[in-house]
Write a structure and sequence with these properties.
There is one protein chain. The chain is mainly α and about 180 residues long. It contains seven helices and no strands. The protein starts with a helix and ends with a helix.
């Protein structure tokens, strides 16, 4: 086998697909006329290789059902935690612990989901609902109750977004480091 035979061997797949230049095709065909071993190799490589179907032992529907169940459980846990944080650490209770807890909630939620809309929903809605419910127990108008609940929920959301921003930057630096 000479050097030309090695070149022909490399070019045969491209030759059979019609992906080489006309000059290269002419040279290759000329070589095939004069070299018996390359001609045999060319004839063998014309036939497509039979592909076997590989069957997976994994039931995809069952696997995705388990994954969706786990994600649903995590979502319920995050929502329950956010309601707990809303009840225990909000400004309504005259506690400033919400600053740390909502920053951590924003960090963990964004790190897990990597979607800001989910972070906003999990942080804003429970606080808004809890604040609105607390305001309804007092003798205030509906408009005052809604505006007060909105104000408190936005303050809590601010610290949640700060935590999300930290998680976003951590994820970005981690990706750039790889």
């Amino acid at each position: 086998m000479n050097r030309d035979c090695y070149i022909v061997e490399d070019l045969l797949p491209l030759y059979h697909e019609g992906l080489i230049q006309a000059e290269t095709t002419a040279w290759l065909e000329e070589h095939l006329k004069s070299c018996e071993s390359c001609r045999e190799l060319s004839n063998l490589s014309k036939d497509p290789v039979q592909k076997e179907t590989i069957r997976s032992s994994v039931d995809n529907d069952q696997m995705f059902a388990k994954i969706n169940l786990k994600l649903s459980v995590y979502q319920i846990i995050f929502v329950a935690l956010s309601f707990f944080f809303a009840m225990k650490t909000s400004l309504l209770n005259e506690s400033f612990g919400f600053i740390l807890t909502y920053t951590i909630l924003g960090f963990v939620t964004y790190f897990f989901y990597q979607r800001l809309i989910i972070v906003v929903t999990i942080a804003f809605l429970p606080t808004f609902i809890w604040s609105l419910a607390q305001s309804m127990n007092e003798t205030v108008s509906i408009l005052e109750a809604i505006s007060g609940a909105l104000f408190l929920a936005l303050i809590h959301l601010l610290f949640t977004i700060i935590g999300s921003l930290v998680a976003f930057l951590l994820i970005k630096f981690k990706k750039e480091g790889n």
